[in-house]
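Class, look over these structure tokens:
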Amino acid sequence: MTLRLSTVILPYRRWHEGGRTTWQRAEQLGFHGAFTYDHLSWRSFRDGPWFGAVPTLTAAAAVTDRLRLGTLVTSPNFRHPVTLAKELISLDDISGGRITLGIGAGGTGYDATALGQDPWTPRERADRFGEFVPLLDRLLTEDAVSYEGDFYSAHEARNIPGCVQRPRLPFAVAATGPRGLRLAARYGQAWVTTGDPKLYENGTPEQSVQAIRRQAEKLAAACAEIGRDASAMDKILLTGFTPDRGRPLQSLDAFVDFAGRHQELGFTEIVIHWPIPDSDFAAEDKVFEQIAMEAPAQLS
């Protein structure tokens, strides 16, 4: 099976100053998909330009034809299922059914306090995520939804005509903990991981592979609990957050070696960051494009 290769394009460039051409170039290079972060701001980019994910993806849908598009990832930190569902149905329609929703519980970054609230604890994030995902699933598959939960409510929320993709657009659920993995098993068409964050600073690539293997085993166990075959589920690795850091993008051979080790763990899609000069995602454009065009054939 050919390993799919996708990219993630951070929304920091004005649309008419490189934003548009980047998404078009991603399609020209043959990437399977192109994602963007769904944040209000993010880390070192906080004090610079940063644009919204849904408008960016809408614009990208209008200037591409084949490229799958989506978020890595959306979270409850500043989203509500009712309004998000309406935007997703609209985006799926505009794109002709090319949207994947990457979705996770969120973290403690800038999104967590931008609306004036205190950051949620890990347990609070898990509680909200556990309510957010099932409600969003209903909102994207039913014409009218009413719901009263501990954190979210919907009153006769209408979502007609629904998604172009049936029964709804796919969820790629980012999770490593037991509750998140159970949500991925039940609602996800794909599972997303960035590896074990505890290993980023001082771990080794070998330790990272073993940690990801254990995550995949826990996903398989969560699937088995509900009678689902985990091998039929897409598995996505968002790169750049393992101890390898930027080394896989230093050469075609380095990337093929890195991707092959994770393909052996059952991953079906690898996502690499579009190069950003003077950042953690800096890479040589020529090498990046060579990887995009030649690596998938070597990993088939």
About this structure: The longest strand covers residues 68-74.
